[in-house]
Amino acid sequence: MKAQTFDVKSVFKLGGLGGFTLLYLSLVGLVSNFVTRDVISKTMSLSFAFVIITTFLFGYLTARRTSRRNWFYAVGGGVMSGAIGIACLIILVLLTAPLNLQAVFVNASPALIKVLTFGKEPFTAGLLPLTGWAVVSSLTGAMVYMLPPNIRRAVIAGVVAVIAIGTLAQLLSDVVENIFALLGNKRASGALLKIFFAKKGLSVSGAAIIFVLTILVSAFSAWRKQIVAAKEQSGAAQTQTPKEIKIAVWIVSLLVILLLPNIFGSYLSEIVVTVAIYTLMGFGLNIVVGFAGLLDLGYVAFFAIGAYTMALLTSNQMGQTTELVNTGLSFWAALPISIGVAVLWGIILGVPVLRMRGDYLAIVTLGFGEIIRVLALSNFLQPKIGGAQGILGIAKPVVFGYELVSSQQLYYLVVAAALLAAYVSWRMRDSRAGRSWMAMREDEDVAEAMGINLIKTKLLAFATGAAFSGFAGAIFAAKLGSIYPASFNLLVSINVLSLIIVGGIGSLPGVVIGAVALVGLPELLREFSEFRMLIFGALLVGMMLFKPEGFWPAAAQKRELHEFESEEVEAHPASEAA
Amino acid sequence: MTILSAKHVTKRFGGLVAVNDVSVEIAEQSIFSVIGPNGAGKTTFFNCITGFYTPEEGDIIFRGEHIRGIPADHITRQGISRTYQNIRLFANMTAIENILVGQEPQLKSHWLGAIFNTPGTRREEEYAHKEARRMLRFVSLRGMGDHLAKNLPYGAQRRLEIARALASRPKLLLLDEPTAGMNPNETAEMTDFIKMIRDELGITILLIEHDMRVVMGISDWITVLDYGAKIAEGNPEEIRRNPRVIEAYLGTGAAGLAKPA
How far is B93 from chain A (nearest CA, A)? Predict the structure, then answer.
């Protein structure tokens, strides 16, 4: 059988691909720009982590192709692919000196050489340790693949945890500090932080502890899952979580939600607020695109309309910048009006596009989004809504006499709004309206033939989507205190659409995950801002290739099961008796 | 009693006359078949009845009401329901959700009721789910309710489509080639099933079918279309002997060869 031979072709293919990845990472500058950024203090910089992770990954992938449950093949494949990969990088290093590659690739700089050769003089002396590290890490990758699946998963989780925590060390140490400050125990926090975190990145001991802990937790959860599965197989009584635990989980999550701004501090809270605003919009677009299947590319329009309505109604500087007078409404009085106006425009846009489907609808909505932005920017409306100067002095929300100004305070408002949107989405999804949307998404003609009123159903989707977006816009305006047309560009629509696709279209948890991944992560990784779009694009391409249904795809609802189970249980004794 | 009568229905697409001056009278609780060669206009005729197309000429009267030109969803609400030649289920919804969508004409709850979870909405949802499960058992798909429609086997998809159509509690059920692609066993089962729908639920059935064994076995009345026009009608025995039908199916000259059975 062919299965017994060593798959040399795959080794070269994956090795070459690994080499290409390494070259790519080096030449776009990801390797040379993060030398001073330590993942593990004084041991591994982020730059070096990129090289190590890539070789590890390709060692793993090669082993998957070549091993055939044979350790010798796995190790051989891993080492060879690592060597091929690193050879590409070495060639690059050797070529930089005579060819002056920097003229073409800005990042093929002396700094890159220095990183890759560990700053050794002459640089050729550094190539040996580089090769060594690459081969060792690809070998490790290959060996990890050969571990039993549960342990393999645990080890990978450990590696990912160390890298992730190491990259975000600064923020996480602040979070830990805040938690202990809340508990009123500063000394313990100092001690704990010292164990885990160094000045830059994780300390070596911290990395080790996190690695081991993650492995243990992951192994434990795998073991528990096995036990539960075994119990279910043997037909034992349903393993249900006791009520007390459920209540405890609720209380703890509620506490966490309430205390989060204090735990996170102002910087992270700011990010959470931004994520929550996008989540709110995501829930709305999820109804329009995810449930009802109406591809809306001008979703930002309703966000802008909500924001401008809020601004016009509550700004205290209308008299100075525009011809209009201050209405002096409070945030809470203006909020329902803002949402209402957005809904109205949702319907106004909805009516002419009722007969449109797919691409045509996308183009029309795209145009609508642009029209709103251009109108906001225009000289024609400048006397009314301020043109490029925008509107200033928008009122902050006031709750029981407290003005919500900082992100840490606005957090509660935004999170409450997002939770409300999630609740409404959830209720509507499982109702007659939700089913009509999905039927329409699946097949419009058949949906109509089933007695569904397409006009009502479509307009309800547009209106609900616009309501959430208008809500988000109103909060956005109040949060910033001033708005400008530039904030309402096409990119917002694209971002919201991307986040629901990445999360899993039609899935409610997917909206949150998508918002965290596409809005939260880029904010967290500010240092990568140069590479943001690059990573963003790569993430989207990779996701569409490997997980096209999204990170948390919408699951089919279990509706028949309940009654069915009870019938089955009743049926059992009878069949045994027979 | 006539449940549906079509009078001089004509549907054109540009220069093509897809349905040409077709009149039928369908008796209540009968099984009425429409047959004819491919492209004879059978499905177009169906589409005219269900409101997907509006015929240019003629009139369609369903239980005393004129339904020509009324939107499809209104016609469904009046009691006409259908299946499709190439199965058109809501592929990414579960079987039970498909049936729940079919119940649409029965449901009255408002979306606000769903958000606030009012007792009325809850009661209606519970009832709808119960009905859907009952319907699932009726088409012997018990236990398959939570599978996505696209993952069901072919025969099950056919039956689910019928269940979805029945969920709206129609007075008249239009079946467009329900046994297409089935083996003889499945076809026999489907034939019995169609009969059962008529006998047990008292629903009138309008059937497009190519399998002559099915048509001859269960039809009370048959109409034959060719090139959009009605060329014959009668009970199975009469249709079997009709030379024009044989000619339409087998070509000129064949009529003389065929011996009356």
Answer: 7
